[in-house]
Amino acid sequence: MASGRQKWQQMSPATRGLVVTFTAIDVGLRVWSLVDLARRPAADVRGPKAAWAAGLALVNSGGMLPGSYLLWGRHAND
């Protein structure tokens, strides 16, 4: 039974480049979000900081969760 996943060696150089680029963006957004969350007082975060931290650290969302935090999870008094 074949799955739709390719091994790294089977990917074209362009596809490998896209995977690396999107992974770097996702990691960068996660780090930025987690650092911001750690430095920000709980009163300036919408929702519990622990829930945001767990989600940002554990959920693979393709950049959607860090983007959500950066756009909507913080109060606008930056």
Describe this entry's structure for a reader.
With about 80 residues, the chain is an all-alpha fold. It contains 3 helices and no strands. α1 runs antiparallel to α2. The radius of gyration is 16 Å and the shape is elongated.
- Structural Rg: 16 Å
Average pLDDT: 90
How much of the sequence lies in strands comes to under 5%
The total of helices stands at 3
- Runs in which pLDDT lies below 50 for 5 or more consecutive residues are none
Taking the alpha carbons of the first and last residues, their distance comes to: 52 Å
Main features:
mainly alpha; 0% strand; 78 residues; single chain
Brief write-up:
With 78 residues, this protein is mostly helical. The chain has helices spanning 13-39, 49-58, 64-73.
List the helices and strands and how they pair.
Layout: H1 13-39, H2 49-58, H3 64-73
Helix pairs in contact: 1-2, 1-3
